Amino acid sequence: MSKVLIIGAGGVGTVVAHKVAKNEIFTDIMLASRTKSKCDQIAAAVGGNRIQTAQVDADRVEELVALMRSFQPDIVINVALPYQDLTIMDACLECGVNYLDTANYEPKDEAHFEYSWQWAYQDRFKEKGLTAILGCGFDPGVSAIFTAYAAKHHFDEIQYLDIVDCNAGNHGKAFATNFNPEINIREITQNGRYYENGQWIKTGPLEIHNSLTYPNIGKRDSYLLYHEELESLVKNFPTIKRARFWMTFGQEYLTHLRVIQDIGMARIDEVEYNGMKIVPLQFLKAVLPDPKSLGANYHGQTSIGCRIRGIKDGKERTYYIYNNCDHEQAYKETGTQAVSYTTGVPAALGAAMFARGLWKGAGVYNVEQFDPDPFLAELGEQGLPWVEKFDIDLEV
Amino acid sequence: MSKVLIIGAGGVGTVVAHKVAKNEIFTDIMLASRTKSKCDQIAAAVGGNRIQTAQVDADRVEELVALMRSFQPDIVINVALPYQDLTIMDACLECGVNYLDTANYEPKDEAHFEYSWQWAYQDRFKEKGLTAILGCGFDPGVSAIFTAYAAKHHFDEIQYLDIVDCNAGNHGKAFATNFNPEINIREITQNGRYYENGQWIKTGPLEIHNSLTYPNIGKRDSYLLYHEELESLVKNFPTIKRARFWMTFGQEYLTHLRVIQDIGMARIDEVEYNGMKIVPLQFLKAVLPDPKSLGANYHGQTSIGCRIRGIKDGKERTYYIYNNCDHEQAYKETGTQAVSYTTGVPAALGAAMFARGLWKGAGVYNVEQFDPDPFLAELGEQGLPWVEKFDIDLEV
């Protein structure tokens, strides 16, 4: 018996709404976003009058507070923009509502990806007896739960962790980004970073790369990026000597991104045009295909997992745990492609873990701090089956 | 003793103004464009009160007529946009003024590059006893005069003509176009075309390419394009069996153009953005570096010429005539780079040929129909020295 408020009606919000609606633990569901008509469309697609909708500007705490006061949810699932994490957390504190998100806070004017802003809410959530669950998508999210599962069952000491994220899908367009192109371009153009022997080592943007083999997919160029779950994982698993994150990009994709920067269309400052002030990257977003429109013709799979080396019973062992997700199947079920699907399913399942009292505690938590077993026991039937391999060549 | 009206205050207009001002045959000079302040800047740079300025919208015949009636020029040098050739020719006919341009008319909504529109003015110019000189830049322009010179002095029969245009300059920017990016992108994305055995043969855009060696530069990838002087040259030199035009592009430049198309920024239709209607290519033009701004750090040379094979005294011979122009030197003299310089110098010299009665005749003429000797005798001292080579490997 739980009331849930979902904020955000993009691809991920669509998946969360579908999955939450199927779960009887959620008795009342509200979907809210800046544009109510988007929420109405999703609610209609889910059907059965399961979902109420509302308009809310997630940048404005007072609007969020008014909505929470009237709907009185037990938990908010925040799948809005990462710029909006803090306003939503503020409103949760004010209204006594628990909180879950899939991506950490990032200021609007620079690409940061650090937990410090949200970890700073620890005492306030604790004092109010509320739970905030950070980063419960796939990566961050399942990637950290996989790591916790490995630590609990297969290792005495995790020493080397490589999170590997491959999208081998093909959407048939010359160029398109899989989610908000602004966030996508920011992520890729920032410096890389990884953890080794207690230190963070900085790299140039996409400086380090490697050809890695993904199950059912094959070899793909994989680039070392900084990704937010590295920050919490090395803190929560202090035996880790080295932690890295790899993501695949095709040469064509990277060429397009480079040119977009060269020609000035990735600029986030205003440009004078016929007396108007226009941010080039915002205008580009209006010209590029809408990420939500990619689903219909998206073929192929994603493959995301953890490759781990460490010690068990005094011996070194290797371990690879991953999920492959099919774009077409994801689209058939929810009307969105696998990149949104793999983020939305864990968010809905994490909220269910909380609603059922399987994940609990006052304060701010990263998902690897909870018991991974009940989550992973259900993840497969929720649409994201996972596979384990032992003592193989990790390539990394 | 001649009065000249220059229309157009871009890079080419700047060069024409500088060169015309140095020539005593031009007693009165007026420079006019849509933005009078640009004309004033150029006039100030030339100095000595040599140049008057005026505002005119070259899309509007009545404005052009009013300006010509008040200034009463003997000849107009049209270095405005190719969209505006016909309105300017109309005004010349109405006011009894002779005409010279550097690029043939092209409708605004499609890339055409055909002389038919302007050749249709033949009878009207003839009846009024006026001269219209078409395509008196470098290519078209000097390229056709080189061909006429070859036909006059070195060949009984020109059989194979390859016009080769190399820009080996480096402006130090990741990407920029050398002139109006809109025209530049249109030219390159259209189909290629060349003449062979009485027929025009169509190719895909940039489908045919070849590595050609340019003097003082070396090997450069050169792409077969359609270029307007081919149309008049095969008509005026009917012994020609094959005529082609080649232009160099670096891989990086082509990659940038391809991506600009892929991401939709080359679109010339309107896109909805925050309630405004914006043409992506027009917005891109506002974000890209202004071609006029490239001059300051432009290094390297251009090399444009004609490679000809044919018969002289019953024997086959080969011939290469070309000019190399240095970006830095062009900038030092006129404040613009070599691409504008090589177009503006021939326009000013062509107008001087007319003013001195060396080129004359009532009607519409392409430059190869005049005597090439007096023009080429002066071209070197005007800043574009040329070189001849005989009986060499033409590579084409």
TrEMBL record, chains A, B:
Residue ranges of domain Saccharopine dehydrogenase NADP binding in the record: 4-133
| Residue stretches making up the Saccharopine dehydrogenase-like C-terminal domain | 137-384
Check the record and name the InterPro entries matching this protein.
NAD(P)-bd_dom_sf (IPR036291), Sacchrp_dh-like_C (IPR032095), Sacchrp_dh_NADP-bd (IPR005097)
Please give the name of this protein.
Saccharopine dehydrogenase family protein
